[in-house]
Amino acid sequence: MTHARRFVLTLPFILCAAGIPGCGGGMAADDGGPDADDGGPDASADGAVPLSPTDQAFLAEFCAAVVPCCTTNGVTADVAVCKQSLAKLAWTRDAEVRAACLDELRQRAASGACMPDPGDLADPCTRIFDEPSGLRAPGETCTTAKDCAGSPGTFTNCFGTCITYALGAVGDYPCLGNVGTTGLINDIPWTANSTVAQSHGFLCQLRDGLYCDWNENVCKALVPGGGACTATQICESSSCGGSTAGVCDPLPGVGDACVLNCKADTYCDGSVCMPKLAAGAACVSSDQCSADCKGSNGCSGTCATAGVCSPLTVVQSLVLSVWCGLTPVRD
Asked: For an engineered disulfide with 289, which of 19, 62, 114, 309 has Cβ 3.0 to 4.6 Å away?
């Protein structure tokens, strides 16, 4: 199963913004959610906690803090739509995480690279949406991720039951998904040959040179060029058998001939690997543009409508469109 919430695009707000069924939580869209007298843990029938005045104040601060990033990236911000959209999503009520995220947004505001890295599960703004404050523990039934109780440094999702994923290392079991270089996550709730949802699992970071072996549900190291392969996703180059059957193709570098992928901060211009372009450079394709991906220089920025490189990845651009109110979250 995938999310444009991260493939599912693993970001809850992208799934919802894309209108994928099963996301969104029953809060009223026109007023940001039901009124509440205090911040206490009075749960609705589905396990979600109604919005309190403190929550409403945080959403207002968050949406206001995003405005400079919207402006820098040529997006007209609509704070009211931002608040309505975010009120429908799963997010944390941890006061320290909220404060750290607001600080991060304000510090990044003047930079073109003003969006947090969705692949960094320790980033406070990523944690806002990865660690919901519902009342249902992992393994308990849920309708949406809003019902679930997240935990620090993990990603919590709902597949009928709450499931929490941690980043895995080589050998960790059960792996139930991958985190791509842009932060895109594809996750499932079951191990191979099973229909029983897990309560906990691991995500394998491609940035760390890992992938999830779906047959064994174990995080494994990507295979370098020259190693044996049976599928493209296990190769560092994402290419198996291009030159020799059953062998991972090498990942070419600057000046080397290429067909699709190149090493690190380079791109394939159709025949030769070239250095990626800096933010502000003229471009015709997003593959040409460098990005600000923490922990990895292997992801691409975006070629904006004006034909210049932006340091934001496609995932970050999609998230920004929700935060700016350009792409409202659907009910």
From this structure: 309
